[in-house]
Amino acid sequence: MSRTAVLAGLSLLLAACTSTPPVEATYYRLQLKGNLKYLDADHCTTTLALNPGSTYADGACQLWTLVDVGGGYARVQLKSSGEYLDAPGCASPVVVGARSTVQDGACQEWRLVPDTDGWSRLQLKSTGQYLDAAQCAGPIGLDTASAYLNGACQLWKLVPVSPG
């Protein structure tokens, strides 16, 4: 092996050892203002519900991360399966689903629309509708506006979860 090849290999090895480690995703629980329960993929399935807490799969059925897609929108990804908050066909009910290309992915792209005191609405890109828990109980779907409990069934808070 030539000296040049050895030096090139050593340079690559050193670069790999000194590179910045990957950034871990920040996970959140999505808390509904109307009842202070959390958005939950029931037993880590595709069905969404509201739950005060979960130990199933070490709580991973309630852990979400935001995956930036640009333009102020993100996909909301479930930790346990890697799937996304999804409005199939851009309509209700909202479920957990595999990555979708329907309307160029806009049925899975959400933005936070700030309200007051740290609460926000989650707005779907394709329709402009908001993530809604009907009468703050379920099912989880989409709606343009909600007057029930002064709109608290559409107000969500990102509650950071400590890694580990």
TrEMBL record:
The keyword Signal applies. PROSITE patterns: PROKAR_LIPOPROTEIN, RICIN_B_LECTIN. SUPFAM superfamilies: Ricin B-like lectins. Keywords: Signal. Residues 1-25 form the signal peptide. It holds the Pfam family RicinB_lectin_2. Residues 60-136 form the Ricin B lectin domain. It comes from the Bacteria. The keyword RNA-binding does not apply. This is Ricin B lectin domain-containing protein. It comes from Deinococcus metalli.
